[in-house]
Amino acid sequence: MAGSPALLLLLALGLCEYGHGVMYKMTAKFRDSSITHPRLGQRLELECVSTKEDSGVFWVHLDKAGILHFIVFISSLRRTTFEGNQKTSTRFEATKDNRFYRLVVKSFSLRDEGHYFCLMNTNQMLYFSPAQPAFFPVVTTTAATTPPAPTTEHNITEKDPCLKTPDPETSKEKQLNIFCDIFIWVPLTGACLLLVVALAITIVLCKQTRRRRCRCKR
């Protein structure tokens, strides 16, 4: 259904009349008071309660984009006129019972989300009800994506890897590796030291020989 600028104008006029004082009170609400959020595909029933019985009521829908849509006009003689001057609708049903003007959304879907109002035009004055919001419940991303934490029972003891008893064969292998390292690296270190000492001695002897040769030539 396309939004109508005339409906927006009517709603604005209704706000002005509401501010100046309302002679007739109207209330739009879910027929089932236990409903807070509709479900997908649910048959959702709303009712408009008016203090005046001999006047027709309009049902309008303000969608999430802020566009007003005309749904139906229910006359005081229980006659219904839907969009396009149609007597019936594939999406909605409408009835009247004394002061109760009811609207039924046959199968609630995403495009039905928004705010619902009922309007009444009497004595060249427009009266409207407070908005009845109808939205699906909000699902938080963290609650939907975060897996539940694993639960551990008290009667089940988990093994701590830090408390494992050492394997005797593994400890023996470690000790052998340590001994092998000692036997290999200690002789190599000593040999390196001997080579350094021998090199130092050789350098000193070479310097002394050169000095003697120089003295002989003089």
UniProtKB/TrEMBL annotation:
Signal peptide (residue range): 1-21
Chief location category: membrane
Location of this chain's protein in the cell: Cell membrane
Family annotation (Pfam families): V-set (PF07686)
InterPro entries in the record: CD8_asu, Ig-like_dom, Ig-like_dom_sf, Ig-like_fold, Ig_V-set
A biological process term (GO) from this entry: cell surface receptor signaling pathway
Residue span, Ig-like domain: 5-129
Compositional bias ranges of the Basic and acidic residues kind: 155-169
GO cellular component: a single term: external side of plasma membrane
Keyword DNA-binding: no
Region (Disordered): 147-169
Membrane topology value: Single-pass type I membrane protein
Annotated TM spans: 182-205
Entry keyword set: Adaptive immunity, Cell membrane, Disulfide bond, Glycoprotein, Immunity, Immunoglobulin domain, Lipoprotein, Membrane, Palmitate, Signal, Transmembrane, Transmembrane helix
Protein name, entry field: CD8A protein
Source species taxonomy: Eukaryota, Metazoa, Chordata, Craniata, Vertebrata
Gene encoding the protein: Cd8a
